[in-house]
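I'd like us to work through together how a protein chain folds, taking it slowly. We need material for that, and I hope you will provide a protein of your own picking. Go ahead whenever you are ready, and we will take it from there:
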Amino acid sequence: QVQLVESGGGLVQAGGSLRLSCAASGRTFSSSRVGWFRQAPGKEREFVAAISWSGGSTTYVDSAKGRFTVSRDNAKNTVYLQMNSLKPEDTAVYYCGTTWFLTSTRVADFGSWGQGTQVTVSS
């Protein structure tokens, strides 16, 4: 059982940056993987980025490649999402979740969702 709490969202202008944090507590396992997802108004929750808790391997949605970087600090049990060159279409509530599947980017394969943090990018 893992509990996740997202933070770091806010209002930024297009081209700006934010760093989101996903703080984990409770039981964590080396085989787990943490993913960032986002949900814009009226849209389905979609995959953004993920990182393996132990090995640190990462994957990104195409629209995030070159702009977003997911990282982790195992000592702090925290996963980060550095978001640069933000665009209005990045506006969404950002969530983190965890999965035992090592390669999945599917929403349905993740759980232990946090409460989300709002990211708003103005034009």
